[in-house]
Each structure stands twice: as C-alpha cells, then as structure tokens.
Design brief:
The chain has 161 residues and is an all-alpha fold. It is built from nine helices and no strands. It is 68% helix and 0% strand.
Length: 161
C-alpha cells in the first residue's frame, strides 16, 4: 500500500462532496436507474441533445472522466481511491460497448480515455483482491438492464360471474 497524505484525503472528501450536490445526485439517480443504452443510437433516444437527460448523462460521465484523470495522474493514491469507490467502473461499463463509436463520431481517439484506463485498472485491482467480482457485477448490471419478466400462468385477476 502506498502512503496516503492528508492532502489526498482532503481531495477525496471534496470529490465525495461534489457527488452529494443536489443536481449531481439527481443526475446519478437518473443514470443508474433509467439510463440503459445498448448502442449509440439508444443514447440519442434516452438522452437526446438539449434534454435534461442528456445533461444528466454528460454530468455523470464527465465527472468520472475528471476524477479518473486526477487519480491517473497520481494526485490521489490509486489503491486508496479504489478502496473507497467503484461507481466509476459502472459508469464506464454502461458506455463501454459504444465508446469506439463515440470516438469516431467526435474524431477524438482520447474521448473518455482517462475513465477507460482507470476502469481497466480498477477491474484488475478488484479481480486480484476478490476473484469473480467483475463477472458478478456484470451479471448484476445485465439483470438491471433486462426488461421485467412477464408472469407465466394464471392471471391474478379474480374471475367474475
């Protein structure tokens, strides 16, 4: 383990406070409860440009891109950060399948690159500490994204005569 400084702890707490800001909480709630894109086209449907949903999506992803940049540069000890946060992995995992298309569309090969590198290292760190947790997290995300199962069998409505 690296030595964590008081300055790093202070920065970590400041980043946490930013996550607690009311508009950010609202954005995070929307992102994790309703944002389920399967493609770049889905992003456009679920978060159209100019919509509050688009603002929420950009707020969450750009926050974690910024935080990843801070950690990637060593301003916060990476292991200390990983011990205290995993949300960034879920954020990147939800857009990972179409990040290449986003990069192509923006003509920016570095688009979300900090978050990608950070999430990759987090995944390796987590798997080393607790093998199988990445797959379990992916299964949990898949269940959250799946449409509700329709009940089979008899209807629960009472028959009238």
């Amino acid at each position: 383990m690296g030595e964590v400084t008081h300055e790093q702890v202070k920065l970590m707490l400041q980043l946490y406070e930013m996550r607690r800001e009311p508009r950010m909480r609202e954005a995070r709630d929307w992102y994790f409860s309703r944002f389920r894109p399967a493609s770049l086209e889905d992003v456009g449907k679920q978060a159209p440009m100019g919509s509050p949903e688009n603002a929420s999506m950009r707020m969450v992803i750009s926050y974690w891109e910024m935080v990843a940049s801070i950690v990637n540069r060593g301003l916060i000890d990476e292991e200390f950060f990983f011990e205290n946060s995993g949300e960034q992995w879920f954020v990147f995992e939800s857009i990972k399948p179409f990040v290449p298309a986003m990069r192509e569309r923006s003509k920016n090969p570095h688009h979300y690159g900090n978050l990608e590198k950070h999430a990759s290292r987090f995944e390796a760190w987590r798997e080393k500490r607790a093998p199988g947790t990445n797959e379990a997290a992916r299964q949990m995300m898949a269940q959250m994204s799946a449409p509700p199962a329709k009940s089979k069998g008899k209807s629960s409505r009472k028959k009238t005569r």
